[in-house]
Design a protein that fits this description.
Number of strands: 0
Shape: globular
Structural class: mainly alpha
Distance between the termini: 4 Å
Oligomer: single chain
Length: 472
């Protein structure tokens, strides 16, 4: 267990250090730039993100899970990634004008996409180095990579934004961060590629990675298809508002939950377990994550309208985005660990199938909701997430024999504690007037800590059991 705990410690330190800098950069840039600036860059970024599924091809996840000779596998994955990266980057440059004109109806996107295509080639050249560090649970080195690549983009973007470079300030910061990341990963990883290429090993990796890539491709639609529809139908301004609100919510949750997932996947993938082991581990991890996510989601819903006080008046429209997406994220993390569990079991196909089913109704609903405005689109977005949870419950029952009632019973104390927290906060708030929003947030946080303290103690007992289940 010491290896797992050390890895988790460094992963948490990575996120804490990054998030100590990231919010400051986020706020400063939000005050210097406009929603349209963010909208133009978001348009190019979603295309770059989409292309990742084609050059990465799930090789990173496949390497972590692969149990054979690592150097042979790493070489095969490295050359597959780089060959695909060159093809994909060239394709993006060639079609940039068509994408800008036909999809986003904004030719400012074309030159941005051409420049950002370089990011594909850079990322492909270091993805296997990063995966091997994760496989070795070497999150100490990844901590320094993470910290440096968060600081560098801000150091470049903020001065350029001050001098009026607009969206190019964001582009320059992104590329700078990617270049520094590649250099650090190559220096810190003990593995270096050779020209050996084993075709049979490559086939095995592509077989596993194909399902992961398929899940990633479908997952892209959960992350970006909403933004794509907003950008196509509502324009750069609303896209910028939506992306900033979404980024704010993501920043909050990734600070807490983000460090857990890569360590969890690496730790679970190292040993073979029985179905009963997977079931008990899943229930405990679900409980731990939901105990964290639900109070955060409720806090964002309650205080989301105060965010323009931090970001600036030009982001007033982002309040409703933060409130609704924050609540949605708080609820969705009840099933958030399932994907990592399935991949750790060697069943990445399950996540792909779940997302494939959900996309049947997601994309048409996105399109319909966007026809009425941003607020209406958000309400549709939240409703779709709740429907998707039903699909997750069905597969959880089929795969691990964990029923909906079992999940509810497992998390009943967390739900009750959150309801009590809201009641106590409402009683406090209704009894006072003219108090600072920041003081209100402090009071809410104190109530959360007090109410959940007994639950944390009970959870610690369950975590001891998880240690035994994981075999650390």
């Amino acid at each position: 267990m010491n290896v797992f705990v050390r890895a988790l410690k460094w992963s948490f330190l990575s996120e804490i250090a990054a998030k100590a800098v990231q919010p400051l950069v986020f706020v400063v840039l939000a005050r210097l730039l406009t929603p349209e600036d963010y909208g133009v860059v978001a348009s190019a970024t979603m295309v770059i993100s989409f292309s990742q599924m084609f050059w990465e091809a799930g090789m990173g996840k496949a390497i972590i899970q692969y149990q054979g000779e690592r150097n042979i596998a790493a070489n095969a994955a490295f050359w597959v990634n780089n060959a695909l990266g060159i093809v994909v980057a060239g394709t993006l440059v060639a079609i940039s004008g068509v994408v800008a004109n036909r999809i986003f109806h904004d030719m400012r996107v074309a030159p941005v996409l051409k420049v950002m295509a370089l990011q594909v080639f850079l990322a492909a050249s270091a993805s296997i180095h990063k995966a091997l560090l994760q496989k070795d649970m070497n999150f100490k080195n990844l901590f320094w990579v993470r910290l440096t690549t968060v600081v560098m983009p801000g150091l470049f973007s903020i001065p350029l934004a001050v001098y009026g470079m607009g969206y190019w300030a964001l582009v320059a910061g992104t590329l700078t961060g990617q270049i520094v990341q590649v250099a650090m990963l190559w220096k810190m990883s003990p593995w270096k590629p050779s020209f050996n290429f084993d075709v049979e090993t490559a086939k095995q990796l592509v077989g596993f990675g194909g399902w992961v890539a398929g899940a990633g491709l479908l997952g892209w639609f959960y992350i970006w298809a909403d933004s794509l529809v907003v950008g196509m139908n509502l324009g750069a301004h609303d896209l910028g508002v939506y992306r900033i609100g979404n980024a704010f919510v993501f920043m909050i949750f990734s600070f807490i939950v983000g460090p857990i997932m890569p360590v969890l996947y690496s730790g679970l993938s190292t040993r073979t377990r029985s179905k009963s082991n997977w079931k008990s581990v899943t229930l405990v991890i679900q409980k731990a994550l939901f105990m964290i996510s639900l109070p955060i989601g409720l806090a964002l819903f309650v205080f989301g309208n105060k965010v323009p006080l931090i970001l600036g008046g030009q982001w007033t429209d982002a309040s409703i985005v933060i409130q609704l997406l924050g609540l949605m994220q708080g609820l969705s993390w009840l099933m958030g660990v399932n994907d990592e569990i399935y991949k750790s079991m060697g069943r990445p196909d399950i996540s792909t199938k779940i997302m494939g089913i959900a996309l049947i109704y997601h994309i048409p609903a996105y399109y319909i909701g966007s026809q009425y405005g941003l607020k209406e689109f958000l309400l549709v977005r939240v409703g779709l997430q709740l429907v998707s949870e039903i699909v997750h419950f069905l597969y959880l029952k089929m795969t691990l024999d964990i029923s909906f009632l079992k999940v509810v019973k497992n998390n009943r104390l967390t739900i009750g504690a959150s309801m009590l927290t809201l009641l106590l906060y409402w009683l406090f708030h209704s009894g006072l007037t003219m108090i600072s929003p920041f003081f209100e947030m402090l009071v809410y946080s104190v109530i959360v800590v007090i109410v959940n303290a007994p639950l944390v103690y009970l959870l610690s007992q369950d975590l001891r059991q998880v240690k035994r289940e994981l075999g650390y």
